[in-house]
Each structure stands twice: as C-alpha cells, then as structure tokens.
Amino acid sequence: MTIDTVEMHTGGEPVRIVTGGYPPIPGATILEKRRFIRENLDHLRKLLIFEPRGHYDMYGVIPVEPDLPGADMAVLFIHNEGYSTMCGHAVVALGRYAVDHRIVAPQTPFTEVAIQCPCGLVRALVEVADRGGEFVTGAVSFESVPSFAFALDRVVDVPGLGQVKLDIGYGGAFYAILPAGSVGLDVRTSPVAALVEAADRITKATAAAIPLDHPDDPDLAFLYGTILTDGRDGFSEEPTRNICVFAEREVDRSPTGSGVSARIAVQVAKGQIGVDQSRSFESVTGAVFSGKAVRGERCGRFDAVRVEVGGRAHYTGRSHFTIEDGDELGRGFLLR
C-alpha cells in the first residue's frame, strides 16, 4: 500500500492532502462517506495522522466525490481524534491547491472554488496573478456556511475551574467561546499547556452540560472544541488573539477559520460588531485571519450570518507513504 500527499500549512497549521492511494469511499452523501471511513477505514487516518508519519497535532484532507450540484471538489477532514465537519485553514489551502492543480481553471484576478465540506458548500476565492503566462496563486478567502450563536452567557460547572460563563457559536463546527482571563489565564503570556488543560476541561464539561442540535443534520451536533480569547470582542482595528483547542486536545496553529466564523456570529448576536465590519484574528503563532459578517440569514430557528474569512497557505512538500509487512508501529501511535 502506498499513499501520496501534498503537504501545506496555513498559519503554521498542517494540511496533508491525499492525492493518491486511498481506497474508494462509498456513500450517496458526504456525511454517509464520513460515517463509512469512520467505521471502516479509521486505520488509514491513524497511519496518516499519527506518528511516525505525523504527530499529535497533524491535520489531513481526503478528497471525495461531491454530491452537491456546483461543487468543484468535496473533502473529508481528519485529525487526532476523528473527522471534523469543517476546517477553515484547510479550505484556505485547498483553494490554492485546486487552482494550482487545475481542478478549477485559473482566472485573474480571482478564481472561485466551490468546496463541499461535511457541513455544506463553502465558496473560496483565490487571488490569481498572470505572470507572463504563468498563473500564481496568493491569498484565499472563503464564505462560511450559515454561522450562528447557539447559546449566550451560559454558566457551566467545570472541574478545577468552578462556574464558567461562556458562549457557544457555530461556524461549520460548534465551539465554546470565552475570555481566557475569566479562568485566570492570558492567551499571550500563559503557557500553552495551561491553556490546553483549561480548554479541554471546558469542552468536556460543556459537552456534558449543554445538548447541541443543528437544523441540517444530527451528525453536525457535537462540540468540537473551546476557543479561549483575549476578551477583545468589540470592533477594533487591532487583531484579537485566540487559541483554539479542538478534537483530543489538539492545538490549532492558525486562528481557526470555522472558529473565526463562530466568533463573528457570537459578536454579531451580542451587538459587539455589525455586518461588514472587518476584524483581524491572531493565533498562537502570530498568523492572522481576517473575518467579517457579509450578510444575515436564517438557519432553521437561528438568526445566522455568512462570514467571510481570509488567510494565506503555503506548500511545504510532497510525501509518498508506505508500510512494510510486520511493521506494527508503522500503523500509527501517539506518545502524547
């Protein structure tokens, strides 16, 4: 068995895109495909994400056949715990990848790429320059699926932290969102390990205390992680910093595209920011995404917004993965 990949990163967060060797994935819809690989091909997720080929915070993309009209490509997302429903940092990378690999024909100055994710259709806009007949891709923005505030100012009893007030936002995935200062931490100066420990406790306690639901599909109704912020939620020209801890204590090196969408949705719901007001969001690596609500709409019973998120991705190489008979460690392991 061999699996080929293209390697990229967005703001330091890895994007391992499978380009060959993955077996066919049956299913009439993308969520059926997601269920199939979760139940039947999880050994390949571990092979690609875990050591010795990956690491605890590796992230990957598996292209599949789209089932939505107008989709240029469809993808499943993989990480240390399983299969996410949306990934903004990966969409930014996939926009460049789709144009560079001619999945979509390049057009200047922008090329639109319609990417079907498990949460729905996401439209990316890729900057393209024509340099003497050579098309060069640059920054990428995308418009989120409908994003909304699921719950505001809820109080959750978190072991070791006490009564914690938080919001829950959806931006393709659900996140608990709160200022790090409310639990005695600082996203700029506190050790990452302390931030991860607090965020993980908050995720587990919130998931147990607050049942989630989504108007489109019950498969979307799970708490993906916690976003700890610097508390600067109102409109400002200065970036607001956050750290997103998702899946099984995985730390996003980027500002988190779906997290930016969720934060914007919560800020709009609280009247802290208006439609068409741009904000910058900074991650633990110093990478910055832009974000703004471009219009309002409904998502089932929720007042929602479409959020435009922008960032940059870069190529880091290609991989050709194999596994020898009898190599049990080569099937994947984690030390943390």
Tell me what you see in this structure.
The chain has 336 residues and is an alpha+beta fold. The protein folds into 2 domains: 2-143 and 315-319, Roll (Diaminopimelate Epimerase, Chain A, domain 1), CATH 3.10.310; 147-311, Diaminopimelate Epimerase, Chain A, domain 1. 19% of the residues lie in helices and 41% in strands. It contains 5 helices and 17 strands. A hairpin with a 3-residue loop joins strand 9 (162-170) and strand 10. The protein is globular and about 50 Å long.
Low-confidence stretches: none
Structural class: alpha+beta
Characterize the overall form. Answer: globular
Radius of gyration computed on alpha carbons: 19 Å
The portion of residues assigned to helices is 10-25%
By DSSP, the count of extended strands is 17
Number of domains: 2
Labels describing this entry:
336 residues, Diaminopimelate Epimerase, Chain A, domain 1, 41% strand, 8-stranded mixed barrel, alpha+beta, 19% helix, globular
